[in-house]
Design a protein that fits this description.
Elements lengths: L2 H4 L4 E4 L6 H31 L6 H30 L3 E3 H34 L4 H4 L2 H28 L7 E2 L6 H7 L5 H36 L3 H29 L8 H26 L1 H13 L5
Parallel strand pairs: 1-3
Antiparallel strand pairs: 1-2
Helix pairs in contact: 2-3, 2-10, 3-4, 3-10, 4-6, 4-8, 4-9, 6-8, 8-9, 9-10, 10-11
């Protein structure tokens, strides 16, 4: 193989989801609608929580952080689909692609950590309700949120720096609709041993498994406490307060497991596109919808704001 041209790759071509022009139009319209809904739903959550004093609680504070992460992640991942369709330009510079991977990894790591902290919040609320406001005070919540953002970013820096060292690619064609880690790793003919080892040990072992373990342990104690409650009504109410968070956790970990917990030579990129589309487009909408549909406080705050809006007569 002649590596002269391969090593000179300065930009990637994002293949997208389909080459069919009609399907591209459908995908663009679908992604555009999903993107608008993502922004609308998550900004609605941010607005409701900021305006309604009843929602000034740790759970909704962390939900706001989750919404901000979803907005950044969706904007980062879906812009290629929208811009490439409107401009016809499917290219992205190699540094730009690596930055997009870094942002996606940072936001994903941050989201896993935020969900773990939300699991701990639910544990304190159910298992230690009398001390809840003392344990989950404003200062602690702010520190936990900052820690999640910082750790999510720091965990992704080694991957970012290692990708910048890559100088050899088999092809400029990225078989995806955005710059994702696996498609770029498959293209690279540079030495990937350190990055493979880092992803397997630190990426999976620390970034993914640690938040999962923390969330799992929290729910072990939560379920054990709920089962001890004699009143059926109180038991149902206790589980109801955790059901929204648990639903989001199951959806996110399921999609990430299917996408990334495989050696990259065995990854089917075509099937991964569909899972990525669900992960980066559908989940950011589902997060606020699940919380708003399953929480009386959010629905009450939304009705209150809608009633207070001026009507034209």
């Amino acid at each position: 193989m002649d590596h002269t041209n391969i090593s000179a790759v300065k930009y990637f071509i994002i293949s997208g989801i389909s080459d069919d022009s009609m399907i591209q139009v459908i995908i663009f319209l679908l992604v555009f609608i999903i993107f608008l809904l993502t922004l609308g739903c998550n900004f609605t959550i941010l607005l409701l929580v900021s305006l309604d004093p009843q929602l000034h609680t740790p759970m909704y504070f962390f939900l706001c952080n989750l919404s901000i992460l979803d907005i950044i992640c969706s904007t980062n991942n879906l812009n290629n689909v929208l811009i490439s369709f409107l401009s016809g330009d499917k290219t992205v510079s190699v540094p730009g692609c690596i930055v997009q991977i870094f942002v996606f990894l940072s936001m994903t790591c941050g989201e896993l950590l935020i969900l773990a902290v939300m699991g701990y919040d639910r544990y304190v609320a159910v298992c230690n309700p009398l001390r809840y406001h003392m344990i989950m005070n404003g200062r602690i919540c702010a520190l936990l949120a900052i820690l999640c953002w910082v750790m999510g970013t720091v965990e992704s820096i080694p991957t970012f720096l290692e990708l910048l060292k890559f100088s050899c690619y088999k092809s400029p064609m990225v078989n995806h609709f955005f710059c994702d880690l696996m498609p770029v790793l498959i293209l690279s003919c540079s030495d990937k041993h350190f990055l493979d080892l880092y992803i397997l040990t630190f990426g999976v072992g620390i970034s993914a498994f640690s938040p999962f373990l923390m969330t799992f342990i929290s729910y072990v104690f939560i379920i054990a406490t709920i089962l001890k409650i004699r009143s059926t009504t109180s038991r149902r109410k206790a589980f109801y307060t955790c059901s929204s968070h648990l639903t989001v956790v199951i959806l996110l970990y399921t999609t990430l497991t299917i996408q990334y917990l495989r050696p990259h030579p065995l990854v089917n990129l075509d099937s991964n596109k569909l899972m990525s589309l669900f992960n980066t487009a559908a989940l950011p909408i589902l997060n606020p919808l699940i919380y708003s549909l399953k929480n009386k406080e959010v629905k009450a705050a939304l009705r209150k704001r809608m009633r207070s809006m001026p009507t034209n007569r």
